[in-house]
Amino acid sequence: TWAGGVDYYNEYSQKFRFHNPSLIGGNLKCIVGAMLETDNHIYFATEGAGLLEWDKQKETFYTYSLFSGHDEIYNRNSLKSLYLDGDKLLCGTNTGSIYAFDFQTHRFSLYYDLGVGDPIYYMGRNSLGDLMIGNVNDWKGLVFLSKDGRAKESFAVSGRKMQQFANVRCLLEVEPERYLIGTRNDGLFDYNAKTEELTQYKREADTY
Length: 208
Fold this sequence. Notes:
The chain has 208 residues and is mostly beta strands.
């Protein structure tokens, strides 16, 4: 919840239990929605408090900050997306960077920086192994990062110049190299990278 707690629903007791991580350190930890479960742990992206971990067996919260002692500490510790990539947890930040969280050392290392300073709302790998990154930049909203570190920001479209996508909030590979791309202002795109076909679905008042 935005107020900094977690409601846990038990399907057997049919009851909610409220867990308040704000008691850790005495500061408010706003949970913005992105969460990921691994074995006996749940990880949450927070607004201003970095990564929040809930140990289900110990029923204990732990917090991990990316930065400390900085003038813009709240903004730089705001996470918008999480993605489990093998043995590491990728954390998309409010400032256009991706950090890898090590489960063993509980430390962060810079994985990739988009260089745009805008929030990253989506991360995931496609069938080719590229890391797909969606963010709310006006000209660099979708980036495919190859395993060898090459970034692809423009995409071939039949009969047109190279296409760039703006303000990408969500993405789904519905079949190999065919993507549904949800944006904040331009509606929904259906893009087939193999055939280079692009279809846009949008009504005047729609945002996705």
